Amino acid sequence: MVFKETLLNVILLLSVLLCGYAFGRRVGVKQGIEQGKYTAIIDIKRKMFYTSSCPICSSKLNTSEDCDNIHNREAGKEMRS
After folding, report:
1. In 3-state terms, what secondary structure has residue 11?
2. Going by C-beta distance under 8 Å and a sequence separation of 6 or more, which residues neighbour residue 54?
3. Where are the domains of the chain?
4. Quick one: which of 11, 44, 46, 75 could link to 69 by a disulfide (CB 3.0–4.6 Å)?
5. Distance (Å) of CA 70 to CA 40, 74, 75
6. CB of 48 within 8 A of CB of 60?
7. Other C-beta atoms lying within 10 Å of the C-beta of residue 48
8. pLDDT tens figures, 42-61
């Protein structure tokens, strides 16, 4: 009788730990994806700052030539409408 109660308690404990692990992993993955989005934006800006080139079209920035009209917000609005 004692063995059955102990076995039941062990199974219950392991199932609770497994559920906690699964829940924590899901929350952690969501937080990691969100943090990765913010980190990617910063990395793109840092790369653009150091290389002085557009990450989209690879043209040099801060020259007499502008990037393509795709980068211009006003031109983008005209193209969409």
Report:
1. helix
2. 48, 60, 61, 67, 71
3. 2-80
4. 75
5. 21, 9, 7
6. no
7. 14
8. 888 888 878 877 777 777 76
- Over residues 15-34, the pLDDT tens digits come to 999 999 999 999 999 999 99
The residue behind tokens 């989005």 is 37
Measured between alpha carbons, how far is 24 from 55 in angstroms, rounded to an integer?
36
Pull the structure tokens for residue 80. Answer: 């969409």
Please provide the size of the chain in residues.
81
Residue among 56, 51, 50 nearest 71 (CA): 56
Side-chain-facing half-sphere of 2: CA atoms under 13 Å? 0
